[in-house]
Amino acid sequence: MNILMVLTSHDQLGNTxxxxxxxxxxxAAPYYVFKDAGATLTLASPAGGQPPLDPKSDDPSAQxxxxxxxxxxxxxxxxxxxxxxxxxxxxADYDAVFYPxxxxxxxxxxxxxxxxxxxxxxxxxxxPVAAVCHAPGVLRHVKAANGEPLVKGKKVAGFTNTEEEAVxxxxxxxxxxxxxxxxxxxxxxxxADWVPYVVTEGNLITGQNPASSEPAAEELxxxxxx
Length: 226
Hints:
This is Type 1 glutamine amidotransferase domain-containing protein. With about 230 residues, the chain is an alpha/beta fold.
């Protein structure tokens, strides 16, 4: 069971002068769900090397069992520090792909032609594609085999407009995940803010927020075991 995890390389939060990147829990929780299930993991990012961590996800208030485990795990830290360049990976080598969120992917992965083509390849091959929180934003330009948006007519979830308002970044992000999923024809639904909410349609798994990262990873494993 070979699983690819794709992380952002973008570290600037718009024009605010603040840093962004990937959200620690959204990487750590799925990482250990997959590891504990015996999966072989490859971590990739557009630039390769150490992906930028959203500093807010490192706050004491944002820590979970998975993030604490990661901080005590030199092997996991080493793997994260040495992500392979996204341009070097092929969907043919993996059984599934998982995209952790954080605001970073809205800037780079959503527009990254390699990432877009990679997701299209995974999906066309009938392999699970999972994205959580802001990472469903990576589906923005992804097309299905018929040339229409991949999410069109499909049940999807992602970071809500009200969650974005709560973190006061509505006017900073390049687009709102909820609005984008609706405008590209997705059958968007959501749970309460900050509560785990995951939607699976066929081989597409999308989760709403950081709390959804572990259940989204578990859904991906279920698909792989089918």
